[in-house]
Q: What sequence folds into this?
């Protein structure tokens, strides 16, 4: 068994992506109640589970000794409460130039597309997109056309393409006859269908 963490019981990766410029492997994982994480994986590194975590047991009790300890890696980002991160990708396309190099991940309980702006390996800004859809986002990928594609997690789930507002079109049969305008929540005006 390959395990990047201190214990095989912690490893619950939901997203894994290789940075397009550095080749580094980034991982999104579910924590216990709270404590979902983004980690930069290093062979042999100890990520601390179950000694350190930002989450709590489902009964609300503390897990381990706290949130940090010498010799144990800290996550690049953690969420309390949980967002339940899912699939993730680095954006390298040309459709959304300000987002070039940003990390995108789906959020299941967070019901959003999460955009993380990076400077090196530091996450300097987080933006939650498409919350008004109220959909569990299972995966996000960049298509060869430079668009971002999302999969929703439902029995009637959809494949969704994000476009700048001026070029929106259907990808799957619509669930309604109207566009969802995400311009109120996004740094780039979007339409999804």
A:
């Amino acid at each position: 068994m390959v395990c990047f963490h201190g214990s095989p019981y912690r490893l619950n990766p939901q997203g894994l992506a290789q940075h397009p410029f550095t080749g580094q492997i980034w991982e999104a994982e579910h924590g216990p109640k709270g404590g979902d994480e983004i980690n930069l994986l290093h062979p042999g590194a100890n990520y601390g589970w179950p000694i350190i975590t930002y989450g709590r047991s489902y009964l609300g009790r503390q897990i381990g000794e706290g949130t940090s300890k010498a010799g144990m890696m800290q996550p690049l980002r953690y969420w309390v409460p949980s967002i339940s991160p899912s699939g993730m990708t680095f954006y390298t396309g040309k459709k959304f130039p300000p987002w070039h190099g940003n990390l995108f991940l789906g959020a299941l309980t967070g019901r959003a597309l999460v955009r993380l702006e990076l400077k090196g390996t530091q996450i300097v800004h987080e933006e939650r997109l498409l919350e008004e859809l109220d959909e569990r986002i299972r995966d996000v990928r960049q298509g060869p056309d430079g668009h971002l594609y999302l999969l929703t997690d439902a029995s009637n789930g959809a494949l969704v393409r994000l476009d700048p507002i001026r070029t929106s079109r259907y990808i799957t049969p619509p669930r309604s006859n109207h566009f969802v305008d995400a311009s109120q929540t996004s740094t780039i005006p979007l339409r999804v269908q």
Remarks:
- The chain has two domains: 1-74, 83-193.
- Residues 1-9, 167-186 have pLDDT under 50 and may be disordered.
